[in-house]
UniProtKB/TrEMBL annotation:
Domain MARVEL: 23-230
Protein name: SYPL1 protein
Membrane topology reported for the UniProt record: Multi-pass membrane protein
PANTHER family linked to this entry: SYNAPTOPHYSIN (PTHR10306), SYNAPTOPHYSIN-LIKE PROTEIN 1 (PTHR10306:SF9)
Annotated signal peptide: 1-16
GO CC, any one term: synaptic vesicle membrane
Family: Belongs to the synaptophysin/synaptobrevin family.
Superkingdom to which the source organism belongs: Eukaryota
Localization annotation: Membrane
Gene this protein is translated from: Sypl1
Length: 242
């Protein structure tokens, strides 16, 4: 598509820009709009998340002190720290406590794919709307490229979504009550730690759903492009027949 757009912009035979928004009502155009919208939702819901964990700590000269640790995309939890509940650090028994796990690769894979799909859909829509007449005249190569990109994108959505879903499950464990036994400062004599709360991750669950929807939509796009290619081939055979 990038090659086709460049050819459309540079070739003397293709410089005539003809805005035709009716193509958005056709299957390929309408699906591209949906893919563009779903990519935005997947990107925003994962990349824009911010959360906080709260613990209730009691130690030397401190009773039921709430301490918090903030975490966000790209979920490098091993850099998230619970500071001391008091300036004296519980009488010297408290050291900065970090969470476990670095899930940035899975989250960034998912968000980067969504961003690239967003940009690709914009490019494809420019071609559909501005150069549909060129596309209809000679669409064999664009259809082949579109089909290959659709297959690859559907596969990448499948992989990235399941990788991100697994990472999200691990993030929930690392930010849940089960993390307390791993905090060394909470094991000091006279120190007790109780899990208080963590920000709801419902929006991250929805991001996984949007990843699956993107995968299904792009798989459907493969079928639409393949069908369009078959219709084009049938039209060529009819026009070439005596």
């Amino acid at each position: 598509w990038l090659w086709f757009l460049l050819a459309a912009l540079l070739s003397p035979a293709m410089v005539g820009l003809r805005m035709d928004f009716s193509v958005l009502l056709e299957p390929l155009g309408f699906v591209k709009v949906l893919e563009w919208i779903l990519a935005i939702f997947a990107f925003a819901m994962c990349g824009g998340f911010q959360g906080e964990i709260s613990l209730l700590v009691s130690c030397k000269d401190v009773v039921n002190k709430t301490i918090t640790a903030a975490f966000a995309y790209p979920f490098r939890l091993n850099t998230v720290v619970f500071s001391a509940p008091d300036p004296k650090g519980c009488g010297g028994t408290w050291t900065d406590a970090y969470l476990m796990g670095n899930f940035s690769s899975s989250a960034q894979f998912f968000v980067t794919l969504a961003a690239l799909v967003f940009l690709y859909c914009i490019t494809a829509l420019v071609v559909y709307i501005g150069y549909s007449h060129v596309y209809q005249q000679n669409n064999k190569f664009p259809l082949t490229v579109n089909l290959a990109i659709s297959v690859l994108t559907a596969f990448l959505w499948l992989v990235s979504t399941f990788v991100w879903a697994k990472a999200l499950a691990d993030i929930k464990v690392s930010t849940g009550a089960s993390m307390i036994p791993g905090i060394e400062s909470c094991k000091a004599p006279g120190t007790t730690c109780h899990f208080l709360s963590v920000t709801s991750m419902g929006i991250l669950n929805v991001s996984v759903v949007f990843g699956l929807l993107n995968m299904i939509l792009w798989a459907g796009n493969v079928w639409l492009v393949y069908k369009d290619a078959n219709l084009h081939n049938q039209w060529n055979r009819i026009s070439e027949s005596p």
